[in-house]
Amino acid sequence: MKKIKIYLTAVITMIMLTITSQVYAYGSQVDTSNAITMPGSLSDGKGTVSSSISGSMNYQFVEISADKYTKIKKYETICNLISAYINQSSDYDSLISNYESTYNQTANGIMSEYGIQFNEEGYNVIKGLWITELTTYNESAWIKASENMISLDISTFTGTKYYIAWVKLGDTYDAEAYKVTGTKTNKEDDKNTDTNSGTNTDNTTKTPNDNSKANSTANNTKLPTVLPKTGLSNYILLGVILVFITTGTVTYIKYKSIK
After folding, report:
1. 3-class DSSP state for residue 60?
2. Any idea where the domains of the chain sit in the sequence?
3. Helix (H, G, I), strand (E, B), or coil: what is residue 220?
4. Phi and psi at residue 204, in whole multiples of 5°?
5. Which of 184-193, 226-235, 245-254 has the least mean pLDDT?
6. What is the 3-state secondary structure (H, E, C) of 79-141?
7. pTM higher than the cut 0.70
8. Cα–Cα distance, 101 to 47 (Å, whole number)
9. Which terminus has fewer CB within 10 Å in the chain: N or C?
10. Helices 2-23 & 234-258 angle (0-180, nearest 10)
11. pLDDT above 50 (res 70)
12. CA torsion angle for 213, 215, 220, 221 (degrees, to 10)?
């Protein structure tokens, strides 16, 4: 019986280690020291990333939906507001004015909707929502950045698309959402389709109140952030757990029958 207890304890330990090692998928955490500053917008699909740490920079673009983009930008804007409020920044009045006109919601409306105050705790709540909306990167899809520049080929499509740009610098990761307009011409379209002939090809990705993400805009803030909880999918983790449980159960049954 003692051996079975030891075995089951080992199984449980392995399960916990498996889950724990996959919860935080971005190394230690999404950049909280403002070591990486993502560009607020892209020009011709390109932008330069600023960094206060050295090392080889890699990046990738992950396409997202318009709804996800809207949520991410809203959370970023609210984080900027809270940060400016806490740090008594002179930008607060203009930020809240732009927010009210864009989202038709006041500061009191924000606090009521999310059950927060404009303080560090409230900042962490909204930053956690921002992190939750981020679509995770593909570990095998990193591209080496040249002179800290990220670049998306916008000549392969027409119309508007939305992306998250992930940047990896050593053990530090950062992300930003972008709205991008493709520049593919009709001559490059499929011969049987010509549905995008009237698409606006202005490839500057400025959007109304398109703020850079929260920890980039208020670089002097020392607010903490919430660790991201993404990694292996729930199905993979569930499968690992079921394998361990099944193995343990079969072993226990065999042990009882022998005994």
Report:
1. strand
2. 1-24+231-259, 29-229
3. coil
4. -80, 125
5. 226-235
6. HHHHHHHHCCCCCHHHHHHHHHHHHCCCHHHHHHHHCCCCCHHHHHHHHHHHHHHCCCCCCCC
7. no
8. 28
9. C
10. 170
11. yes
12. 120
Pick the most confident of 9-13, 69-73, 253-257.
Answer: 69-73
Residue written as token pair 């307009």: 181
Distance from C-alpha of 86 to C-alpha of 243, rounded to nearest angstrom: 49
pLDDT digits (tens, 9 = 90+) for 81-127: 999 999 999 999 999 999 999 999 999 999 999 999 999 999 999 99
Token pair belonging to 7: 């075995």
Question: Tokens 């917008």 identify what position?
Answer: 41
- Rounded CA-CA distance 186/158 in Å is 9
Query: pLDDT at position 237, please?
Result: 44
